[in-house]
Amino acid sequence: MNIARIETIPYKIPYITPLAFATGRIDNVENVLIRLWTTDGVMGEAEAPSRPYIYGESQQSIITAINEWLFPSIKDLRIFDKEKIAQKMAWVVGNYTAKAAIDLAIHDAMGKYLQMSCHQLFGGMSNQLTVSHMIGYDSPEKMAEQALAMRQQYGINSFKVKTGKDYRKDIKACTEIRKCLPDATLYLDANHGWRADQAISVYHAIRELDFAFFEEPSPAADRIGRHRLNKEMAIPVCGDESCISLADVSREIFDGISSMICIKMARTGITESTKILHLCEGLSVPVYVGNQGDTQIGTLNSLHFGAAFKHACEKPAELTNFLEIRDDLQADALEIKEGKMRIPTDSIGMGIHIDEHKLNYYRQDR
Amino acid sequence: MNIARIETIPYKIPYITPLAFATGRIDNVENVLIRLWTTDGVMGEAEAPSRPYIYGESQQSIITAINEWLFPSIKDLRIFDKEKIAQKMAWVVGNYTAKAAIDLAIHDAMGKYLQMSCHQLFGGMSNQLTVSHMIGYDSPEKMAEQALAMRQQYGINSFKVKTGKDYRKDIKACTEIRKCLPDATLYLDANHGWRADQAISVYHAIRELDFAFFEEPSPAADRIGRHRLNKEMAIPVCGDESCISLADVSREIFDGISSMICIKMARTGITESTKILHLCEGLSVPVYVGNQGDTQIGTLNSLHFGAAFKHACEKPAELTNFLEIRDDLQADALEIKEGKMRIPTDSIGMGIHIDEHKLNYYRQDR
I need a surface site. Which of A296, B79, B99, B216 has the fewest CB within 10 A? Predict the structure, then answer.
């Protein structure tokens, strides 16, 4: 059960509708599928997304980092030696999603090797998660329609409202969505798009609307602004793009910048995500499992991690992004019923099953 | 792989020489061996020590808690669902070593079920630990002799100096030991035996002796005294008996009472110890793996946990207590060579092998 080989396959699938947010937009999934083989023929799979505006990684940089730096550093190590593997990869700075994909593939391989479902290998708290859906930018009316349609079709009743471009319009969108969904769990994400004073204005304008938390309302780099904002707010400020490592999470909490944390498999894999989760559990800091433009493959990682741990499965997790993508490498479609996503009882590893025909069609290296 | 049955066996083995420390003395190991069977016949083993002056638990209370409260709460759960198991046991307050023994036995069972060594299942950072030895109370000269003999016989070069009864005598003991062992790693443990002002006096008297840290020098309950002490000290103050849960660790660090943490398998098992370790790693708080009057069984738990994680294996671990006990249930004797204890390459689970003849001889329930 030692690491023998890693294959890196870039692929591209268009979004149905391009995804818009405060710092950019995405037209295509541009990921690298990795296949990690062990000496006894077990294969773990995962993928690394290229997200230049968050991690600075391209498909090319991911492939180079894995083939030239990371794989040679961990070749021949046992897949279960996750701490040693993390340590051996530590000399490479950055390259978050490349490292996380290796860690995710290793955990998939562990599950397959043991013929166990990963969520049970990790902690087995639950076998399902409550699903949250992200409502992308649009007119306030269309955003409310989006949410109602998701509730109608999937029973989803938790929504992230994307904000951060025009705070006056954002207030209208929040108000409109709450009007249409009086009992839903709502929170917003401004991706650092507001100034601190604007975030404070939004908070006071919508405080009767019972939003659960604000994610990255103002730039985390504006420490004084965030402190001013946090002093005003009764609900947590959640750190996402400012909290992409264990060290980041620790610093942002202690500096009083964030009081809740978004955990994403795509950047911290299983090993570092578990450390972040435990740090937050120890500090009574809430967390939720977020989405990084996930396909069904990434969604399966979030599902298995989130379901495994008590402190992670308490909040709705963002598991719907794959619905926005025109197609998917995963052969069996994931199901959302009555607002929940369940892990099938016969699931092994992360439950990933690649459709080889689709992979051949979407891969960019042939 | 579901929990089917737990057997609780009280047993007693005398110490070669009674163990003396600031708050009491121990003449005998009085533990409860637990055997946890799964539905498919796998058996995980561990033990709970009775330590009234730290946890308030007796052999009887341990047996009652397991048989009447804890086992009925977790019967039929899968052994891998450790988060769910911890949650189901949470309604029982206290009973630290009873709960920890179940968690340890479950992890032993996981390893046996998977035919894997636990240290590799947990993280696989290393397959060995540097060993530290605790020097019990005696005259300064005899304490130095103890240390020299351990170095001679086992190559050990890290020592905990037990202090906390008479601070003037303690200063002499520290001075004598450092004179005999100029290059050893030395630290001391006063078990809350000094007042804060005495601890400050000791610190200044021995600051040239290069001690690594002070463990529980003054009562943790004297918060103001500890703050005064911490202000004076350049080296960490380590929390042990004040840090027996994840919540304790978090509080003691944030209140500025302790700046280093002793992790003990006997009280927090694998699941909660891992959370404590990750909390501390995230906060850059050093930890070491301590001993709770461990037999070879408890020592194996410490060895597998400590070796698995980078942040745990960096410091010497206390793995010699079993040398002070007249006999042991473990069939294969653990070896310390050149100051290290290694996990054999063919180890499965926690590597526990009970000698059934000895168990029959030492058990107290027949």
Answer: A296
Q: Which of A73, A97, A115 is the last residue of a domain?
A: A115
Is residue B327 flagged as an active site residue?
no
CA distance A165 to A162: 9
Shortest distance, CA A266 to any CA of chain B (angstroms): 19
Q: Which of B86, B124, B250 has the CB atom closest to A82's CB atom?
A: B124
Asked, for residue B352, whether it belongs to a domain, the answer is no
Residue A19 has pLDDT above 80, yes or no: no
Structure tokens at B265: 């398998």
Encode pLDDT of A112-149 as tens digits: 999 999 999 999 999 999 999 999 889 999 999 999 99
- Antiparallel, parallel or unpaired: β A3-21 and A24-38: antiparallel
Strand bridging mode A340-342 / B3-21: unpaired
What is the spatial distance between Cα B45 and Cα B55, in angstroms, rounded to a whole number? Answer: 21
Residues B84 and B196 in one domain: no
Does B120 contact A282 at a Cβ distance shorter than 8 Å?
no
CA separation for the pair A305, A292 (Å, rounded): 15
Residues B80 and B154 in one domain: no
Domain match, A108 and A134 both: no
The Cα of A124 is separated from the nearest Cα of chain B by a number of Å equal to 4
Interchain CB distance below 8 Å, A83 and B308: yes
B83 and A114 within 8 Å at the Cβ level: the answer is no
Instruction: pLDDT band for B93, please (50, 70, 90 cuts).
Output: confident
Three-class DSSP category at A52: coil
Instruction: Look up B166 and say whether it is catalytic.
Output: no
Note whether A107 and A176 are same-domain residues.
Answer: no
Residues A207, A293: one domain?
yes
pLDDT value for B120: 96
Does A24 score more than 80 pLDDT? Answer: no
Q: E strands within B241-323?
A: 260-263, 287-289, 317-318
Residue A156 · residue A174 · CB < 8 Å: no
Over residues A175-230, the pLDDT tens digits come to 999 999 999 999 999 999 999 999 999 999 999 999 999 999 999 989 899 999 99
Contacts of A250 in chain B (CB under 8 A): 282-284
Does A83 contact B309 at a Cβ distance shorter than 8 Å? yes
Which band of pLDDT confidence, cut at 50, 70 and 90, is reported for residue A22? low
CATH code for the domain in which residue B285 is found: 3.20.20.120
B336 & B256 share domain? yes
Query: B243 CA to chain A: closest CA distance, Å?
Result: 13
- Of B93, B115, B137, the one marking the end of a domain is B115
For residue A194, is it within any domain? yes
Sorting pLDDT into bands at 50, 70 and 90, what band is B23? low
Q: Which residue has the tokens 């004040």?
A: B242
pLDDT for res B80: 96
Is B112 catalytic? The answer is: no
Domain region containing B47: 2-115
Within-domain flag for B364: no
Annotated catalytic residue, options B57, B108, B170, B240 = B240
- B162 counts as catalytic: yes
- Please state the pTM of the whole predicted model: 0.85
B210 is catalytic: no
A150 and A20 fall within a common domain:
no
Chain B contact for A308 (CB, 8 A cutoff): yes
Q: Does B98 reside within a domain?
A: yes
Same domain as A152, residue A73: no
Cα→Cα distances A56→A11, A60, A100, A267, B352, Å: 18, 11, 14, 12, 48
Could you tell me the end-to-end alpha-carbon distance of chain B, in angstroms, rounded to an integer?
30
Interchain CB distance below 8 Å, B278 and A275: yes
CATH of the domain at B15: 3.30.390.10
- Residues A71, A35: Cα–Cα separation, whole Å: 12
pLDDT in tens, B113-169: 999 999 999 999 999 999 999 998 899 999 999 999 999 999 999 999 999 999 999
Domain count, chain A: 2
Note the pLDDT tens digit of each residue in B301-321. Answer: 999 999 999 999 999 999 999
To the query of whether residue A84 is one of the catalytic residues in this protein, the response is no
**B283/A275 Cβ within 8 A:** no
